[in-house]
Amino acid sequence: MIILGINAYHGDTSAAIVVDGKLIAAAEEERFNRIKHSAGFPAAAIRYCLNEAGVSIENIDYIAVPRDPKVRLLNKMYYAMKIPRLAKRRLVVLNKTANIKEAIADIQDIDEKLIKAKVINVEHHRAHIASSFFVSPFEKAVFFSADGMGDFASTMWGIGEGNRIKILGEVSFPHSLGLYYTAITQYLGFPDYGDEYKVMGLAAYGRPEYKNEFEQIVTSNGSLGFKLNLDYFLHDKKMVDMNFEEGSPILELIYSASLEELLGEHRKKLDAIEAKHKNIAASLQARLEEILFSMLNELHKRNKHNKVNKLCLSGGVAFNCVANGKLFDCTPFKNIFIPPAAGDAGLAIGAAYYLWHQILKKPRSFVMEHAYWGAQLSETELSYELGVMSYELKRQGCQIRKIEDEEELCRKTARFIADGEVVGWFQGRMEYGPRALGNRSIVADPRRAEIKDKLNSRIKHRESFRPFSPSILEERTGEYFESSQFSPFMLFAHKVRPEKKDMIPAVCHVDGTARLQTVSKQENPRYWNLIKQFDNITGIPVVLNTSFNESEPIVNTPKEALDCFLRTKMDILVMGDYLIHSASKHDASQSGYTNMLINRYDKEG
Predict the structure, then answer these.
(1) What is the pLDDT at residue 480?
(2) CA-CA distance, 579 to 119, in Å (whole number)?
(3) Which domains does the chain show, CATH number per domain?
């Protein structure tokens, strides 16, 4: 049986394909159309999934869509009368969703009648929950989903066992932890869709001096619930434009003038970041954690008789790795699973697995142990692109070598990293979700504090307060971090051991934490081997890992990787078995040094 999951007409549109309960492929549309957080219809992602599975759309049995127009009708009717423009916008989206077969037929250039698949609507948060629990290693677990809004709910929780989930409660629109975080993110001068992670990084530089004010903004009932003080928000009063129909998603300002009366004038996007802004960010983060931990503790307490100490998290709030890292100390849960695409991109997988297990009642047989579900690096495509771009590569002074022995390739690359070179690392299948996890990564030496400035000035061009992440050999995690919890999807920030901070300063945030990725030899042997070779050279089983991009979605194809490499000041590009070195990106003395290094590495073999 073949199920195509589609997240359409929403931010982070995506597609996934599940065959007889096994995930075959999943991808976000942004990786193909190069629009960050792309909204609209995931045409290219659907085509990719069908091609990867080797099937045509006529072979699909079900199409699972993570939107259910039939849920929370009273709430929807109330706000339709209160905000007529909101109702009109939703009707447009619902009409497009209802005609999803027509949209698929158009992109496949076939008659809609040839698509025999049955379309199944899955409520938004049930799809989030399924994207976590049903692909987790847990037979039984508590689950919790929180985001901005979906199907007029923002939060949902319950308990899962086997192939069934039971919903125990929810928080409906307009109350939302996701919208709370977004509103303050906008207030702090970060207006773009998806900017919340920037404020999470900024929070580490401040102190929660606005604790009293934030207790007014969002209140807890001390149990399983919370409420926004709606005086400080606009989304329940007027049509806040949320354009998810095509292109780049747009979300208008959702905080009110009352918030500025409480906290002072908002920061404009290009204004300097002052101590006040850092303290507001810290207060925002602290209040989120208070609410989140309170609810999870209560959820555990209510299910104590079920002896459930495992937790599955999903929804956009689950990307808050700072809060995630504290869960082990602030809640009773010691086994926690968060999928790599915990946000809306993961809805495509979640809708498919909700249908497979909850509706069709099929047994579980799949665990998501890695995130490599996207497009495969093709040797044919790589060779072709190197041929097409050979003149430009030579013009820019690039040297190209093919090294088919993996040990030698990893050893040479590790030596470059150890000598301070910045390496683009392009291997295997694209990661699913927002994190580069060793297949579409930029890799550097974590021992060099100055490497952060080098990356920001030459390649990433991003805010200086945002931290870089470490990738560490899974088996060595406990040596460098106070938690030995495995984190293959880079979704937990853990404390770096005090005696190790000076050894890896480039990946240690100002608060002494790092958002780590643990790398398994089984799940990504080549990336593991690269880190192991770096460890052999330096005695440090850690590399700095950041996404392979420059103010764009993560690169997906060899051409995109080559383009990014040539227009930035990366030193090395390793694509498959090819090692490309750009000596021309250094001054004359550096070029001589680089050539000397190449000769030395060749002799070392």
Answers:
(1) 98
(2) 46
(3) 2-127+349-371 (3.30.420.40), 375-604 (3.90.870.20)
